[in-house]
Design goal:
Elements (H helix, E strand, L loop, with lengths): L1 H21 L8 E7 L14 E3 L3 E3 L12 E7 L8 E2 L4 E3 L4 E10 L5 E9 L4 E8 L4 E4 L4 E7 L2 E6 L4 E5 L16 E7 L9 E8 L27
Parallel strand pairs: 1-7
Antiparallel strand pairs: 1-2, 3-6, 4-5, 4-7, 8-9, 8-15, 9-10, 10-11, 11-12, 12-13, 13-14, 14-15
Amino acid sequence: MKKNYKLAVLMGLVGIGVLLLSACTIVISGPALVSYDGNNATGGSIPVGPTLYTVGDHVTIMDNTGNLVKNGSVFVGWNTNPDGSGTWYYPNSTMYISSYRVILYAQWMPWNAIPGTWDLTYTWDDGIERYAVWTINNDKTFYDDQRGHGLWDISVNTIQLFYSNGTSYVFPYPYEGTNYLGNARGLDFMFGTMAAPLSGSYQPQGDWHAERDTTGVYSQGARSVLEPGSITPSGEVVK
């Protein structure tokens, strides 16, 4: 009888231990190393900042602070895999560290993902929203349906369009939600600020956004605005 009693006590203690373990959440923590990789960058340097964290931390993703560049491409963010098949992270977004070693690889969008037809909505500082159509070409030229034309280029993580009269449109990429999905799809959305040349002591400025026209038919908003008094995308007033 004594042996049975001891066995019952032992089994009871084991049962209590199992219940206690099941009621607890085991948190695994420890040092974690986070680093950035230029992923075949041709210039600049990887971001320098804190690298040692703890598993379970929430970390703010760094921007392209070292001005990494790659010939013929624009920086569009970070990914856990070099080929972009992993998890995407954008500058200033938050990453939860779930492993002891994290490498974030720079992602590059080739310049030939940008050309095409774009429906442009632009608002100079007169507050009036207007519409036009951009045709962006592979040879780094572009023109609109308002008789304006110019050259475009990329610099570090910025897409820039310069009209022949000096008006500039700037799109500082990347922004989460701009929907770059790969070379086949290209870039679908751009937005930013614009500035026209000085007119006396006044320099017109404004905001713009553009959506890629993938249907071959201009959207309802994109239409000619050449009536007198209108301001063209290049900042000139129609007379």
